[in-house]
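User: Please go through the entry that follows and flag anything odd:
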Amino acid sequence: MEKILTGTADYDYKYDILFFKAKGREYVRSIELMNVVLDVDSEGVIVGIQIFDASSFLNVSKNRLMDIPKWRFQVTVATGKVEVRLAFQVKVRNRIVEKNPIITEPTSEPLQDQKMVCVG
């Protein structure tokens, strides 16, 4: 069953970390994958994403990550694999450009199979 949540996005310019978080959901643990950290709530639902070294990982300048007018992330967990599909917009010379990275990683963490979408 797919859960659809609304959320917030934030960017830490100094440390180059991009955050996406579902509103009203608190995480109780985190799972590290490459330079991405997934935040998991008490129900086992992934409710947040932190991307470290975001500007180089996403190939977007740090200044452009300061203003993300629209974004969406979709997380699918199935048979020990996590897939994160991220879609977000940045402004480039007065134009809106959409980026769509996909992160797929195996995980040994105990996660329930799920599909969750968070939009902001």
About this structure: The chain is about 10% helix and 60% strand. Residues 2-119 form one domain.
